[in-house]
Structure formats: structure tokens, C-alpha cells
């Protein structure tokens, strides 16, 4: 409740509950100066985590609106202040202005203009965005990335769903999905939305993608149907709007975020030196950022690579289409614009000759398009400075354009750049997304990295993956094991000596036991919930990695800690766990493995997820089937998963734990549904019981996306990072 008080001031700005929802994400509080996007977003996530859906929606939308307002204000203020007399920068001193003019007059003029421009920008920002202006609304780079990935829409769709605003939920889901086509959960959710009766096809609209993409696609499609006349207005709009998008991207380059990034990048390379070195350093950063804008504009949401040669290729289509409909003057203007990028382009030159011949007498007024001329000249000016800085100041610059004239590139750099150009990834078709079951997508999605594959582990069907758990999550599971063990000591469910060695104590906890203890209030329910969630996380990764075409089921999950018994460790020769294979009885003498009872013959894949590393010994190792020759070893650490097939190809054991306590989650997966873990389902039901009222009133035949209740929430990191979206979904 106290958290609600925190939102109160903001809620007062928002329309009263029950007021009609505006279509789309229109401003909620027109006129009022926006709050900082960071704060709004953080508050929105807190509201979301607490299940306060309406405030969450309001706050997240405000965050989006505030960020958009910031971008618009930058663009407008930048344009206005550049045009203001007195704030215009002086033209650079010409060769005939003499040395006195350069030193005596130019420098103070430049700096005075810079001061005047800064003043103008500050005032304009304050006028547009309220006290503090743009600086108050600065967006940190982490949040900028989150916005770029459209994460707010993922939260929004869930919150709208909870509020039964299905149309908006579908729009938000679609908006997120467009930029995250690999997001498995969203793909499933989208399918569910499509099946819901309350959602119409028009609901799936994209609330973020700039409209030039739609114009571009429509134009291309019409061209494909030989409809040049119909295509032309779309093609023209696409070009103009993409140029406008480049402008608004460039305006962002002068913001404090870019500055911050440049500082981050400069860390380690020492301080920028004196006044002019600092100015130069900052300026280079701005130029680099501006040069990247064409690539950003040419990159579709959800794609990694830009459409190659975006602007010139649009101009080519335009001149051809204009020629087809017989508008030769337009055709000439556009083909001349192509030649600004590629003066030697054979096809363009030939087309130009042809158009001119068709036109008859030369038309003096015909030149390249003005917008393109401005663009090319400006870009070349920036490249000239960047290459200069590269050659003389050691700056780095990766030219994003293939059309830069060779003469611009310093001799010394040309060879290297040519090589880089040849490696340019988008010279080839950008890689098409692989089928969704591809394990890499799943790893990426889960924030997991593949540390060692089978080859690196000297075997087959083995892998080490890292990043499955945050340190906080390891802490929660360790606490769960500890609490359960202590309760066992009181109740007779005791930590006993290990079945494998007399020198270690062994504590095991199944998911069902954990759920029962949680229900009884003996252990925190958070730990028990997490145990379930994590086992599913391991299962889905193991399936994606090893068995994409055939579902795997958890067959047994066991949280196991082994503790060294003090005073019994010297000269110890045995193992913590002798060498064995998981689904067959290994005969080390013959190297054979009998897949028959008492082995758990239905186990197909095994997983060991480690929770800690503060103990001595305890490495996992793989051997040859002789159980003697060690082929690979893995050191446990929090969040590391060793996954492997359960057969004779993976005999394994654990070295003695000689000090401390080693905890891990052992999981076995099976292809046989009848050997799926009953206890897992029981445990889940047990933990869900008090929350049965969830989903009440939902149309029961709509398989709805599961509401993101706190029980699925990933434990926050110590740093208080907001919960990542994935686990809420
Ligand atoms: C060519 O196109 C321009 C702009 O679309 C238009 O203003 C002009 O009238 C057209 N000329 C002809 C001959 O169609
Ligand atoms: C694989 O074998 C090589 C050579 O025996 C060894 O150096 C390497 O450590 C092994 N890999 C692992 C992960 O143990």
C-alpha cells in the first residue's frame, strides 16, 4: 500500500479511473511537463510487480510518451537554435582571411556562438520540457537499450491483458513481437491472442515502427505488380520520411546520452586533455553517431542488419518508376541523385543519357534532388573530418557507407578499409531467422551463454552453459536447502551420511518435499517456487539444445548438498560420487553399459545446475567407459549447467568435497511422457492453491497467457535491477 502512495502524485496527473481509454497510446496528460522516463519506467515496473495493473499501464505509457517528447524537443530545439542569429557558427576562415583573422577573430567568434547556442538550447529545453529541460529527462544507456528492444510493450501487453483491454493488449504484444521476432514466449502469447474471440485482426498494430517502412513496403509491392504510377507516391513518401528519420536520429547524437557513452568508451584511454582536445574528442563522438544514423534508419525493427545501400536504392527505384510513367524530368532528378552517391555508376549514366535524349533539348533547371544533395554534401563533410581525425588523432571510425569516394580515405587507411568492406556482413543476404527451436535463440532469450560444447569437453552430447541463475537466485536456493535441512534435523528428516562416501554428509530435497515444507511454513515459498521455475528453465534449454524435435519431460529433480565432514578428510582416497552412467549399469572392465534395472533406463538427458563454488574439491569429471581415464572436468559455480546425454557415452563422477558444502540441482529428463515427474505437477498445484482466484472471469475456453504473478517472478538482483521481462511471462 505504501508503494501506492509513491505513485499518487503521478496518478493525479493521469485521467481518473474509468475514463475512456484513448485509442493507441495517446498522451495521458497533455500539457503537463513530462516526468523523467527512467523514474516513470521504474515506477511502472514496481506497479507491475505489485500487480497494480492500471497504474502500471499509466506509468509505462507516460515513460514512452516522455521519451518521445524528449526526442521531439531535441529535434525542434536543435533546428530552431541552429537558425537563430548569433547562435549560428561562423563559417570556417577561408584561405584569404589571413593568419590574423584565423587567430584573432575566428576563435572568439566560434566560442561565443557555442555559448549562445548552448543558452538557446537550454532555454528551449526548459520551455518544451519544464524546469531542468532535456538534462532532467536524460535516459540512461541501459534504459535506452530497453526502449530500443521495446520492452515496455511486453509489460504493457500483460497489464492490458489483466485489465481485460484485449485490443490494446494485442497491439502492445504485436509491437513488442515485431522488434523481437525470436521471443518464444511472445510468439506463444500472440497465438493465444489470435485465438481469443475479443481480438480482431486490426488489433495487431504496430505502435512504434516509423511509417516509412510501411510506405517502402507498399511501394515495392506495387512496383512488383508493375504498378509504377500507384507506387510512386509511396516510394516518394518512404524516401522523404526516411530522410526525416535520419534527421531525428542525428538530433539525438547531441544529447547527453551520447556524451555519456563516449565517456564510457574513453575510459581507460586516459583523459581527453585540454580544451581543444576535449572539444575535438566530443565532436568526433557526435560525428560518428551522426554517421551511424543512416544504418539505424535502414534497419528494420527486429533485424540486425540494415537494408543495404538504403537511400541510393530508393533513388534508383524512383527514377525507373518516373521514367515508366513518362515523367522524365523527375526521372532525371532522381538519377542525378544516384550519381551523387556513385558518380561512376554505369547503369545510372546510361539511364541519364537516355532520359536526356528523350527530353530533347537540355533543361537548364534540372539537377539532382535538393534533399539528397544536402544529405550527401553534409555526409561527405563529416566523413572528411572523421578520416582526418582517424589519420592524425588516432580516432576510430567505421564508415557505414559503401559509396564514400576513395579520394576521401587517406592513402594509409585505404587498404585496410577495402579488406573490411569485403567482410561487410550485409553484402550477403542477412541471415534469415532459423526455426524457433534452434537452441541459440533459446540461449539468447534466456540470457544464457554456451561455455563449452561437446568438442571442447572431449566427448559427444555434452555442454556447459552459464548464466542460468543470478547470484540472488543461487542464494535463494541455497537458503532453501539450508532451511529444509535444518527443519529435517528437528523433525527426524535428517541430513545423513552420503550413500556414496562416509566422509560427506548428504542432504537431498525433492520439489514435492520443498512445496510441502513451504505450505507448512517451514521454508520460504519463494525458494520452493524458484525450484520449480528453475527446473523448467533447465528442461526447456536442454530440450532446445539436444532434442529440438522431440519434447523432453522432467523425470526427477533433486536439490542436493554434499558437505565435507570435518576431521575426516586427510588422506581421503574416495570420490564424492563414484563414476557411473545415468541410464545404464556400467561395467568398467568391458566398457559395456547394460540398459536394464536397477538403472533408470528411461533417463535420456541429465543436467547438473550448480549453486555455489565456496568449497574445496567437488569438480565433476567425465571418463572413458573404463571409468578411469578422465576426459574432461567441470568446475561448479553459481548458474552453471552441465548437460549431457545419460548413456554410456557420458560416464561421470564427482571428486571428493574436502571442505565446505557443495550444492547443486540434479535433473533428469526423459522422452517418455509416462515417466514425467508426477511430483513436479503436484508441487506446482500445492504452491498455487492459495491463488486459485486468479483468472477468474476469464472466458474459460481461451487459453490465456499465464498471468505474471509474483510466484513466477525472478528474484531481483542485489543491485535492485528491475525484474527482467522474460520470467514474468
Ligand atoms: C512529374 O512529377 C512531378 C512531381 O510528382 C509533377 O509535379 C509533375 O507535374 C510531373 N510531370 C509530368 C509531365 O507528369
Ligand atoms: C580435453 O582434453 C584436453 C587434452 O587432454 C585437456 O587439456 C582439456 O582440459 C580437456 N577439456 C576439459 C574441458 O577438461
From TrEMBL:
Its cofactor is Fe cation; L-ascorbate. GO terms for cellular component: endoplasmic reticulum. The keyword rRNA processing does not apply. GO terms for biological process: collagen metabolic process. Residues 557-671 form the Fe2OG dioxygenase domain. Its EC number is 1.14.11.7. This is procollagen-proline 3-dioxygenase.
Amino acid at each position: 500500500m505504501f508503494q501506492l502512495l509513491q505513485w499518487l502524485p503521478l496518478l493525479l496527473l493521469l485521467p481518473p479511473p474509468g475514463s475512456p481509454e484513448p485509442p493507441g497510446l495517446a498522451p495521458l496528460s497533455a500539457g503537463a511537463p513530462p516526468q523523467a522516463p527512467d523514474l516513470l519506467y521504474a515506477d511502472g515496473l514496481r506497479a507491475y510487480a505489485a500487480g497494480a495493473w492500471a497504474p502500471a499501464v499509466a506509468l509505462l505509457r507516460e515513460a514512452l510518451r516522455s521519451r518521445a517528447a524528449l526526442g521531439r524537443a531535441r529535434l525542434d530545439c536543435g533546428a530552431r537554435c541552429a537558425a537563430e542569429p548569433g547562435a549560428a557558427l561562423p563559417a570556417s576562415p577561408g584561405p584569404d582571411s589571413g593568419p590574423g583573422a584565423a587567430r584573432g577573430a575566428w576563435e572568439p567568434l566560434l566560442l561565443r556562438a557555442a555559448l549562445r547556442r548552448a543558452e538557446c538550447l537550454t532555454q528551449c529545453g526548459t520551455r518544451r520540457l519544464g524546469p531542468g529541460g532535456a538534462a532532467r529527462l536524460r535516459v540512461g544507456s541501459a534504459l535506452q537499450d530497453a526502449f530500443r528492444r521495446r520492452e515496455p510493450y511486453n509489460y504493457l501487453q500483460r497489464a492490458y491483458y489483466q485489465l481485460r483491454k484485449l485490443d490494446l493488449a494485442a497491439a502492445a504484444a504485436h509491437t513488442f513481437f515485431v522488434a523481437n521476432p525470436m521471443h518464444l514466449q511472445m510468439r506463444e502469447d500472440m497465438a493465444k491472442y489470435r485465438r481469443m474471440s475479443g481480438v480482431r485482426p486490426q488489433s495487431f498494430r504496430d505502435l512504434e515502427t516509423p511509417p516509412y517502412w510501411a510506405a517502402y513496403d507498399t511501394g515495392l509491392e506495387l512496383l512488383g505488380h508493375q504498378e509504377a504510377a500507384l507506387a510512386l507516391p509511396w516510394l516518394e513518401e518512404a524516401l522523404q520520411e526516411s530522410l526525416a528519420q535520419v534527421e531525428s536520429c542525428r538530433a539525438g547524437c547531441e544529447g547527453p546520452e551520447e556524451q555519456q557513452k563516449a565517456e564510457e568508451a574513453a575510459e581507460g584511454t586516459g583523459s581527453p586533455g585540454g580544451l581543444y582536445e576535449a572539444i575535438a574528442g566530443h565532436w568526433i563522438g557526435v560525428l560518428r553517431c551522426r554517421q551511424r544514423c543512416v544504418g539505424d534508419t535502414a534497419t528494420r525493427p527486429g533485424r540486425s542488419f540494415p537494408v543495404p545501400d538504403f537511400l541510393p536504392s530508393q533513388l534508383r527505384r524512383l527514377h525507373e518508376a518516373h521514367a515508366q510513367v513518362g515523367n522524365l524530368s523527375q526521372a532525371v532528378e532522381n538519377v542525378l541523385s544516384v550519381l551523387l552517391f556513385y558518380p561512376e555508376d554505369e547503369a545510372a549514366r546510361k539511364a541519364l543519357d537516355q532520359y536526356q535524349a528523350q527530353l530533347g533539348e537540355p533543361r537548364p533547371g534540372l539537377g539532382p534532388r535538393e534533399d539528397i544533395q544536402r544529405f550527401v554534401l553534409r555526409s561527405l563533410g563529416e566523413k572528411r573530418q572523421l578520416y582526418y581525425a582517424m589519420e592524425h588523432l588516432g580516432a576510430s571510425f567505421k564508415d557505414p557507407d559503401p559509396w564514400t569516394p576513395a579520394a576521401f580515405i587517406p592513402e594509409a587507411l585505404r587498404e585496410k578499409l577495402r579488406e573490411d568492406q569485403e567482410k561487410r556482413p550485409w553484402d550477403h543476404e542477412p541471415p534469415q531467422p532459423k526455426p524457433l527451436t534452434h537452441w541459440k535463440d533459446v540461449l539468447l532469450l534466456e540470457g544464457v551463454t554456451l561455455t563449452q560444447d561437446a568438442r571442447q569437453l572431449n566427448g559427444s552430447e555434452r555442454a556447459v552453459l552459464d548464466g542460468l541463475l543470478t547470484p540472488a537466485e543461487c542464494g535463494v536456493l541455497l537458503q532453501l536447502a539450508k532451511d529444509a535441512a535444518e527443519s529435517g534435523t528437528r523433525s527426524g528428516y535428517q541430513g545423513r551420511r552420503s550413500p556414496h562416501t562416509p566422509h560427506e554428509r548428504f542432504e537431498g530435497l525433492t520439489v514435492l518435499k520443498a512445496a510441502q515444507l513451504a505450505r507448512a511454513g517451514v521454508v520460504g515459498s519463494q525458494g520452493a517456487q524458484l525450484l520449480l521455475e528453475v527446473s523448467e528453465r533447465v528442461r526447456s534449454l536442454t530440450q532446445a539444445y539436444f532434442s529440438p524435435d522431440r519434447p523432453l519431460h522432467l523425470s526427477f529433480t533433486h536439490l542436493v548438498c554434499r558437505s565435507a565432514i570435518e576431521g575426516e578428510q586427510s588422506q581421503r582416497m574416495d570420490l564424492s560420487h563414484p563414476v557411473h552412467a545415468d541410464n545404464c549399469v556400467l561395467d568398467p572392465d568391458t566398457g559395456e553399459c547394460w540398459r536394464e534395472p536397477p538403472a533408470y533406463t528411461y533417463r535420456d538427458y541429465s543436467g547438473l545446475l550448480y549453486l555455489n563454488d565456496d568449497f574445496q574439491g567437488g569438480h565433476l569429471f567425465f571418463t572413458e567407459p573404463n571409468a578411469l581415464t578422465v576426459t574432461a572436468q567441470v568446475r561448479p559455480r553459481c548458474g552453471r549447467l552441465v548437460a549431457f546425454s545419460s548413456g554410456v557415452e557420458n560416464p561421470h563422477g564427482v571428486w571428493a568435497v574436502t571442505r565446505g558444502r557443495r550444492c547443486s540441482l540434479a535433473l533428469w529428463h526423459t522422452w517418455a511422457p509416462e515417466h514425467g515427474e508426477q511430483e513436479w505437477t503436484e508441487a506446482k498445484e500445492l504452491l498455487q492453491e492459495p491463488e486459485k482466484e486468479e483468472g477468474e472471469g476469464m472466458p474459460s475456453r481461451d487459453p490465456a497467457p499465464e498471468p505474471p504473478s509474483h510466484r513466477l517472478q525472478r528474484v531481483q538482483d542485489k543491485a535492485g535491477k528491475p525484474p527482467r521481462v522474460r520470467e514474468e511471462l
